[in-house]
Amino acid sequence: MKNGKVSLSHRRSHSLETELIHGKSLTKKWDFNHHVVPPISSSCTFRLDTAERGAKGFAEFAHHAKGTAVEGPPPIYIYDRFGEPNKDVLEENLAAAEGGQIAVTFSTGMAAISAVLGAVTAGGDEILAHHMLYGCTYSLLTNWYPRYSISTKFIDFKDTAALRHHLGEHTRVVYFETPVNPTLELIDIEEVVRVVKEANKHRPQNRKIYVIIDNTFASPFCQRPIVHGADFAVSSLTKSICGFGTDMGGVVVGPEWSYDKLLLYRKDFGGALAAKSAWPILVYGLPSLPVRMRQQMDTALAVAQFLEKDERIEFVRYPGLPSFPEYELARKQMRDYEGEFAPGGMLYFSLRGKTPKARHDKGEAFINFLAKNAYSITLAVSLGNIRTLVEHPSSMTHSAIPVAEQVHNGIDPGGVRLSIGLEMAQDIIRDLRRALDSL
Ligand SMILES: *Cc1c(COP(=O)(O)O)cnc(C)c1O
Predict the structure, then answer these.
(1) Fewer beta carbons within 10 angstroms: which end of the chain, N or C?
(2) What is the pLDDT of residue 28?
(3) 133-163 per-position pLDDT tens digit
């Protein structure tokens, strides 16, 4: 202490204010090679050391020599939106989980969907899509893409002849979800791939049609579309993969050639996954996906069996029930990492009622009772969460569609969507029984 001033450093040749910005920036304490858990790396920008190394980083970004996108030299990190350690490590693991060559993450599932579609289409192209899609994807295709002269034709992908018939000169993408939200109907991935491959035989390389599947509903633990021949699998990381409902994210998994395109798309359109969100998905979400899904599937089957026996229920659809209309296809297509049958954690069921209006009103009353009285079931959209979530598609997620059209597309006016969480089956069943008794 001198003249009432406290000196914190004897060695300092610059102000403390400056020193507390820079610290010991080259300290040996930044040793990330011995961590068991990867550190949260949250740096928007990266020290480039020399102008030459900086120039090399820019020149190399998204310009991978053939065969180096999957396993190349260590990247020169430049700026978070280009790439950084948490996202890059997560991407390696997501590519492995989906059985694909490369993965690129995005800020949300919708950012991933718009990136893969944006990266492979241009004005004048046509997208062929199943007639039932996640609402925001439907909105992207019908409200925005027409402004860029990218059109979408909606057909029923279960009709192979119609699919073959509609693959036209301008078609560039065949896009669908399986299981379909909310009806849980399945589309045979290998059958669609077979029809598209046949069409591709007669098309030049630069006009090939890509099969893109939104795998969010199943999660990569329960189904890997690329293994069945799809070109790309997209997922919302917000759902089962994060699993705890804390972070948003999206991913595109695909062939090696698409890696640079997707990185450039992310760089310029800007929907990069936050490093702080990549970290929990890398450290908690993806590693715990199998144990969460196994427990959720056991519970989903018990809940489905309970509902199936109750005479107040019109129907219950769960791909793990032998009564499921496409049970054989489910057994072929929905398999876990070890090849075991993995029918997922989503259920769709409807309450009995004489008219569509009566079923609609009953579904709404049932959900309202749950919202007010249930302990283990929460009224909320989203899915794949550790908490069991319920919603009424007819009056919520799909309410923009007139009831007659809902029925035409397989949505029952009384239909209830249930995403099973990690609670004990008997607690979920008790809440459901009380709600049924209240009607
Ligand atoms: C939630 C969801 C999306 C969008 O994901 P976000 O992370 O919310 O952007 C896309 N497809 C399906 C099937 C979804 O359930």
Answers:
(1) N
(2) 80
(3) 998 999 999 999 999 999 999 999 999 999 9
Contact 125 CB / ligand 1 (< 6 Å) = no
* DSSP classification of residue 149: T
Confirm or reject: Cβ of 134 under 6 Å from ligand 1: yes
Task: Kindly report the protein residue whose alpha carbon is nearest to atom 7 of ligand 1.
Answer: 109
Altogether, the residues listed in the chain come to a count of 439
- Sequence-separated (6 or more) residues with CB below 8 Å from residue 431: 370, 373, 374, 375, 376, 377
Rounded Cα gap, residues 410 and 417, in angstroms:
13
Contact 412, 394 (CB under 8 A): yes
The protein residue whose alpha carbon is closest to atom 4 in ligand 1 is 109
Measured distance CA(381)–CA(207) in Å, rounded: 38
Cα–Cα distance measured from residue 369 to residue 402, given in angstroms and rounded to the nearest whole number: 25
Q: Which residue's alpha carbon is nearest to atom 9 within ligand 1?
A: 109
The owner of tokens 């800020």 is 107
The reported pTM is 0.94
Mind giving me the DSSP string for 268-312? Answer: HH--PPPHHHHHHIIIIIHHHHHHHHHHHHHHHHHHHHHHHH-TT
- For residue 300, give both structure tokens: 């989903």
pLDDT tier for residue 281 given thresholds of 50, 70 and 90:
very high
Name 126's bridge partners: 151, 171
Residue 340: strand, helix, or coil: coil
Calpha distance 413→401 (Å, rounded): 11
Cα distances (angstroms) measured from residue 212 to each of 115, 301, 314, 350: 12, 29, 34, 30
Calculate how far, in angstroms, residue 160's C-alpha sits from the geometric centre of ligand 1.
Answer: 26
For 58, the token pair is 């820019």
Q: How far apart are CA 383 and CA 391, in angstroms?
A: 10
Query: Which among 409, 218, 220, 183 has a CA at the least distance from the CA of 330?
Result: 218
Domain ranges of the chain: 289-437
Note the helical H segments in 16-141. 16-22, 51-60, 85-98, 109-120, 135-139
Domain covering 289-437, topology: Aspartate Aminotransferase, domain 1 (3.90.1150)
217 within ligand 1 shell (Cβ under 6 A): yes
End-to-end CA distance of the chain: 78
Burial class (CB in 10 A: 0-12, 13-18, 19+), 160: middle
